[in-house]
Each structure stands twice: as C-alpha cells, then as structure tokens.
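Hey, sorry to bother you again with one of my protein questions. There's a protein on my desk that I can't quite get my head around. No rush at all, and the record is pasted right below.
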Amino acid sequence: MKTTVTAALLATLSASAAFAQDLPQAGSDWFTDAQKVIQEKIAAQPNTKKAKNVILFVADGNGVGTNYAVRLFDGQSKGMLGSENVLPYETYPYTALIKTYNINAQTPDSAPTAGSMNTGVKQIFNTINLSEAGVNKDCASEEGNKLTTFSEIVTGMGKSVGIVSTARITHATPAAVYAKTADRNWEGEAPEGCTDIAQQLFDAMSAGTVDLAFGGGSRYFAPKDVETMDGGKGRRIDGRNLIEEAKAAGAQYAYDTASFNALKLDGSTPVLGLFEDSHMKYEYDRTDDDEPSLTDLTKAAIEQLSQNGDGFYLEVEAGRVDHANHAGNAYRTLTDGQEFARAVALADELTDDEDTLIIVTADHEHAIAFNGYCGRGSNILGLCMGIKAGQVENSGEPLLGADGKPYTVIGYLNGAGSVMTEQADGDYFGTRPNIDEDAATDPEYLQQALIPMSSETHSGEDVVSFAKGPWAHLLTGTLEQNVIFHVMHQAVTAE
C-alpha cells in the first residue's frame, strides 16, 4: 500500500513539474512556493489517534482583522514589509471560520462564546455555562440549567486541567472552564442562593476539577479592604480569604515573578497564581521583575500538567488583546497579540503533534477597520502611505482623505478615539486632527473612530480557528462556535 501511495505522489509531482514548465510564470517565487504548499497538502494525512492532551488557545477579540494587524506588526518588528509574515499558528494544517453569535445576541459577549467552546452548546449573552433556559442576572434560573464542562469530562478521565489568562482569572473566558453562573459579573459576590465565580474556582480546585490557575484578579479572593500580596485590596463581603484557604488546603500560591519562579511544578499539589489585583499588565507595560509573561505562564502550566501520565486540558487566554481593542489602543492590542503568538509557538515546541490537539482561535472580533489603498510596508500602526509604480515598498507619502488630512492604517468604527466630541450644548461635533507618523505610532495613541463610546465594542464577524494534532481535520469549513467542544471531545474519546 505504501508503495502505491508513493508512486501516486511521484506521478503527481511529475505532472506538476511538467505543467509548470509550460507556463511563463513558472520561475516566479510566488508560483513555486504555491506549488510546494499544494504538494504538502496532498501528502498530509489526518491524525485519528486518541488525544492525550488538548490545548485551547483563545486570543480574546483576535478576529480575522485583528489577527491581520498582529501578523503585519510582528513581521514589521522583524524588518519585513509585514504582509509576507506568517504567525506560528498560521502554519497549522486545518482552519475553519467560526460563527460567534450568542443565542440572543448578533454581536457576542465573551462569556457565552467561551462557554460554547467548553460545553458544546450556544449560550445566553452575559451568562456562563447555562442552558438556553438560563436568564441573565436571574439567580433562580441557574437551577436545573447548569451544563457539564469539558474540564469536568476530562477530570473524570483522569486528566489534569489548567487555566492561564492575562485577564482576571474570574473573567468571562477563563471562568468558562469551571464556572456556571447567570451573570459573568458575579466575580466576587453573588445573590443569595448562587455562588460567585471566585468561590467556584476555589471549589473546583478543592474538588480536583482544576489543578492549575494563573491570571489576575486577587481582589475577588480576599475579604473587603484586606491588602493582597500584590498591593491590591480585597472586595469579598463574605469575609472569606480564598487565597489563604487554598494555601491551607495544600495549594501553592504565586503573586509575582519571584514567587512564580519558586513554584514546584512536579504535579504533586494544585497551583494558584494571582499576579495583579485586577487584570495582568499589558505586555508593553510589563517588566520581568513585575510578573511573568503569557509565554512564561504557558510553559509553567505545561510543565505542571504534563506530570500527569493520563494527559491534560489547558485553556490559555490572551485576555488583554480584547481590552486594548476596547480602549481603541492598537499598539497594546498588537504587542499582546505578538506575545500570544510566542506562547503558542512555545506550547507547540513542548508538546507532540501525535498526541496533543492544539486549537488556536478567538471568541469574537472587534470593530476594527483598515483604511485606504496603502502601499506595502505602511506601518500597521502609522499612516497609510501611497503605492508607488515600479517598486514593491510604499511611496513614503501619506494618502489624504477628502478633507486633505492623512489617515492611519488602523481605525475603529466606534470607541474612545472618536473624532466626535461632546459640545457645551450636549451635541456632538467632530473634525479629524491633522495627525503625523510620530503621533500615530506612539504607544499611547488612540486610533481614530467614528461613533463616540467610552469603550469600543465587539463585532459579530466570524473568527478563525487554526488546529493541529489528533482530529484537527474536523475543524474545516464554516462552523458554529460550539463545534469546537465536539472536536475536543472526539479527540479525547476516540477509539
């Protein structure tokens, strides 16, 4: 059989070579590179083995557009024009478009999108891991409507579970691994009869459903006004100190780089790391002395979870890609996106494609847009430069709008950078400032937006999933977001 396949492949290659010889473009690098891609795809065979490990990477808010910007930013930081760059996960053999809407929302929220990936069903806006009968902010609606999570399923199979996030660990996307709640905002306090998200994480770690959790958000684990190790203050009104309770129960605890580096990652005890009072720092603002990077956290998580011979499930979220988009600050969006790519690359190096399913995706996109007919190499954070005949790189001359002013490559439909500002009479009026390249590329610059909003919104566009490893070939076409759960489940239960 092997001989037959090999012969067929050689015949295909020979035919392709003959085909290429007849074309004037055959000597082009574009042409030969594309031929190489085709042959690699022809030779690829699906992996239908049972997955020992599953890693779900979620760059929050990193839809097709945001990912495009990260690709260019990463490439330009390496001296490229940018467009030709390939992010580590963009080499994965299987991709799909993922539809992100919620049951009752055309433009989604992170809680039900993450929940759909962790339970296999679409969910209600602002709820986490409740059936469609759940009602946002209605504590009573939790009764009888709580869904079983992927983490609970794999725990029953003897696997370990880990969560890594640069957001608060009680925030929507990481909470979807372990929490079930009628309101994503019940992070440290919930109505009588319901359990807040921080306590649910504590309960999950106590029960062995979560073995490792790294992120921010110590405020929701400590009593009100009690100072936490990171210098923040607790917000719990029930008087419980879940950090101290976790330590008393045998968990290791980290709150800064030094305590993180001191962790014993031998799989013998649960690990909790809360590195900020609220969200962790943006990668641009972080120093190694302050707190570990997303890549550092991912490496440590894999080291800890890999001690389990039965395997693990790990969800890794780059939560602050989303927050920087909300702020209308593309610089921090892209630096956090670049760090996310590094974390994916390292995880890939530390695991084996034969037994580890890796899925890289986003929960939703943002109202980000790309302006004008920009020439190659226009700084993705800067002004849109013109196309120059006879050369690949841009002209170096900014293109102008009908108002005679230049514009940036990136803009937003809405957000804090709106050119519309409130006047004394309460009306809104705006005109675009005459921006230059230095101002546009400043890390603090807020990209121009149209509709004035204190926080830029999500968008309802599809996102992409990139996958490799066992049963990754199921992630092709255009899929509902909840299908991701079913691919992961198929991978760990395959015979």
